[in-house]
Each structure stands twice: as C-alpha cells, then as structure tokens.
Design a protein that fits this description.
This protein is of the alpha+beta class. It has 5 helices and 6 strands; from the N terminus they run ααβββααβββα.
Length: about 200
C-alpha cells in the first residue's frame, strides 16, 4: 500500500534527525577532549625547560596546590590538593624542589581533598581509547575512575558497567578540572613567576 506523501515526508525528516543525532553523538565521543591540547603544551614546555616535575599554587590566597610529574613519552601524573602546612609547599616551590611538592601533595599527611590524574601518553583524557591498552584514570580521594570506554545501559551483560550518561558526565567533569589545573601550570611555566624571598612564606 502506497503511503501518503505527508507520511513519507515525516518519515524522511525523522530518519534524518535520528541520523544527525547519532552522528553528533559519535563526534562528541571521538572529538579531542578539552585537556588534549593543554596536556601536549605542558609536556612541550616541560621538555623545553628540561623539567621532570613542577608545582604551583592554585590561585592567590588559597591552600590548594597542583604538582605534576612528566615521564617522557609515557605519561603525565598530576595531583592537586589542599595542604594545611602550606609553608612546606611554599618552601619547596621557592627552592624549586618540585618533586618534593609532588610527593607531599600526593601522599603527605597534611594533604586533603586530593584530585589525581594519570594521563597515559601525555595527550589529555580520552573517553573512548578503543583498542589502546593504556587507559587514562583519575582519583578523587580514594575513589578511582578508569576511562576505558566501557559503559552501557545497565542491563544484561552491561549490568556491571557504568551507565553511558554517568560515564560521560564523569569524564566531562574530570576533563574540565584537569584542563583548569593544566592552565595553572602552563601559565606559571610561561611567566616563570617566583616568590620574592623566603620572608614572604606563611
């Protein structure tokens, strides 16, 4: 039975809309993350300045710091945390003991509200790594999230996988936060701003 022209037009419009939505979702999942260019820029600056580690305060008048350890051609390890004895971190920054600052923020007893990033391949966070065995991961306090690209509808064989919406939200939040912290480090590396004297430490 031949369908009326109006129904054929409606079907065409709906099919086109669904195809466009699917295409948009695919682009959203395969497009580079916000942290991609920033991670590459940071790695380049670190190599240029021959630094393996670096650290900075996250904003004036705060007790939150960020530190990074770069393993060339392998990964970027980043940690941000509040530090109650901030004079220890300021001392490390003034004397360019960046690896000490990194270790204190990552495992020191005075650190809290930790946010850690394991950026495999120094290319920012990747939501869908495909067959790449190296997966990016974050840790907020003691809760670790691995971005292995595995998610689903929570049913059947996918019942133990995170829901797609929750997975993508966790990724977007982590990517945005990672990008902001990379911005802090990049700006500090470019301006090379140092404390004026040990007397300024608090």
């Amino acid at each position: 039975m031949k369908q009326p022209a109006a129904w054929r037009l409606f079907g065409f419009v709906m099919t086109s809309a669904l195809m466009a939505a699917a295409s948009g979702a695919a682009v959203a999942q395969t497009a580079p993350a916000a942290s991609t260019a920033k991670a590459k820029e940071l790695a380049g600056l670190m190599a240029e300045k021959k630094l393996e580690s670096y650290a900075a305060r996250v904003g004036e008048g705060t007790s939150r710091y960020v530190a990074v350890l770069v393993v060339p051609n392998v990964q970027i390890l980043l940690v941000s945390a509040k530090y109650t004895r901030d004079t220890d971190i300021e001392y490390a920054l003034y004397h360019k003991q960046y690896s000490n600052a990194y270790q204190d923020l990552r495992s020191g007893v005075f650190a809290s509200e930790r946010f850690l990033v394991d950026d495999a391949q120094l290319d920012g966070l990747v939501a869908a790594p495909g067959k790449n065995p190296q997966h990016d991961a974050i840790m907020i306090e003691k809760e670790r999230t691995v971005f292995d690209g595995l998610h689903g509808d929570g049913k059947g064989r996918n019942s133990k996988k995170p829901l797609t919406e929750a997975y993508m939200k966790a990724f977007a939040d982590a990517d945005a936060k990672y990008g902001q912290l990379l911005d802090v480090l990049i700006l500090q590396l470019k301006t090379a701003k140092l404390l004026d004297a040990p007397g300024t430490l608090r």
